[in-house]
């Protein structure tokens, strides 16, 4: 079994009558990039705030390396809050150095780290500018620098990719990958599912304060029904109707999409297609993370967006 990283264990939280989290449980292993996705109001920000300790849980526990997270551990978390948290009138460089010092770095290390991260994140030329003078995207780059400047052992980032241009998305993705490669557990929330699918080792899909599905994209896919694409140009409409356990989802030109239910035989589909004439393509259609997400959350979508 791998070493424990950051563990969120049966964490529950209410705001008055609103149940924000109901036994939220998952773990982010050392060196792992974990994508935290869910509808608006599903409970991602609440979970992250509890992990950082800016909000207390009603029940459950957050652990790091097998021990409950305490004040000392929290000094080693790099956090990017959803509401962002920079001082607008303070200069970028001074602010980052100050934050690094707050986390216990020496003055010279804090200065060197500020220089390193502002360069890496493309805001070195703005070190002497007030934060409020920067564009929103550049403020976000500085916000990420603020989460990284003290060389944290854990990274918890609330929607770090929102509002970034494609170049900044690439830089941010590379930085998160590198941090994970050094053994840091990295968790971030995002609504950009294509990015999450590309970047993350594992993904957690949250619905109504609960972890509904968790695993690698391949693991999440393995739970769903198999879909096939069959390109049979001479087949008449209805060629696959009546095959046991097979549902025809649609046809575009010569390509028919079918879903296999329990007990359905893909080879029977292939034989039926070949009986119509040539088959140019016969392949499995893998659902995207967006498809998987929709199937997990759609059931209660209305309830959550009303929150
Ligand atoms: N301070 C608060 N007071 C009352 N209710 C709150 C408070 N903060 C959050 N909530 C409620 O808790 C639930 C979870 O909210 P949370 O912000 O954690 O969701 P989220 O997944 O981060 O959403 P989003 O994707 O929109 O950022 C929602 O129903 C929200 O309305």
UniProtKB/TrEMBL annotation:
Classification via PROSITE patterns: ABC_TRANSPORTER_1, ABC_TRANSPORTER_2
Cross-referenced SMART domains: AAA
Domain ABC transporter span(s) in chain numbering: 6-233
GO molecular function: ATP binding; ATP hydrolysis activity
Keyword field contains rRNA-binding: no
SUPFAM superfamilies, per database record: P-loop containing nucleoside triphosphate hydrolases
Domain of life: Bacteria
Pfam families: ABC_tran, DrrA1-3_C
Keywords: ATP-binding, Nucleotide-binding, Transport
InterPro entries named among the record's database cross-references: AAA+_ATPase, ABC_transporter-like_ATP-bd, ABC_transporter-like_CS, DrrA1/2-like_C, P-loop_NTPase
Residues forming coiled coils: none
PANTHER family membership: ABC TRANSPORTER, ATP-BINDING PROTEIN
Family: Belongs to the ABC transporter superfamily.
Name of the molecule in the record: ABC-2 type transport system ATP-binding protein
Lineage of producing organism: Bacteria, Bacillati, Actinomycetota, Actinomycetes, Pseudonocardiales
